[in-house]
Description:
It contains 13 helices and no strands. By secondary structure, the chain is mainly alpha-helical. The longest helix has 24 residues, at 238-261. It is globular and about 50 Å long. The protein starts with a helix and ends in a 17-residue tail after the last helix.
Amino acid sequence: MNDQVIDHSTQAINVGSKSFAAAARLFDERTRQSAVMLYAWCRHCDDVIDGQILGHGQVDGDRSTGEARLTELVELTERAYAGEPMSDPAFAAFQQVIQRHQIPREYPLEHLAGFGMDVQDYQYQTLDDTLLYCYRVAGVVGLMMAKVMGAEAEPTLDRACDLGLAFQLTNIARDIVEDAQIGRIYLPADWLAEAGIPPDEIGLPQHRAALSTLATRLVELAEPYYQSAAQGLRDLPLRSAWSIATAHGVYRQIGIDVKARGAAAWDTRVSTSKVQKLQFLLGGGALALASRRMPVRPRPASLWRRPR
Length: 308
């Protein structure tokens, strides 16, 4: 294992996502390395498309030549699968992960297709459109992470995908106003029309009360996906289950806080405190242990289904 690749990936996660970095420390060493390297690739692709650095500076980021950037990312991904030498640290890390865990090529390509929706200014008319985006940018990351943790069974992969969907629905609710500043609107146009919010005015203060009802709707929509994802913990190694249960608690709390703040949800960015993270760390351990004895409920038929 190349120490430089590991160091680069660790730096990426420590700066790019403190929440995920904290949860990743709970993995066994081999799984943690792979999870961190996979995160570094996802973070790199996001940064390339948005012209930002490790998730920061999105509003001022350079998004010109997006199609060319996306094409290059797809080509590099294909070359990684072809076994060609990778000079970029993020792609060198990615190549090690896909080879080590036999991650299907369609997963990362689907992830890049999600960035393609951003580049092409995809219009989200219905909830299904929004859920497709959530699947591509987060659901397939759940699938890849599940493979890293040794999951193979389709029902377990479904639960991992559900967690990704829940995370992204939470992210959309938290970042509605910030995303609107760069012309990104992931709320279904149907919902905006019902709430009487013109798409080009989504970030204006006079619409905050109406916008908070839509954010609440997103948070409540995420809840059954969080519940479904928890059902998959029992199929993971205990330390992996602990890590995922911790991340599950942290992200779910962000949605709860967005809902509780109402129209003030976007005055400051919603995040969890160190004390809360510690609480979820402890609670995640208890949930991981409890999952070993948890009776499994069937996945609700009403939930969005990933493409097969």
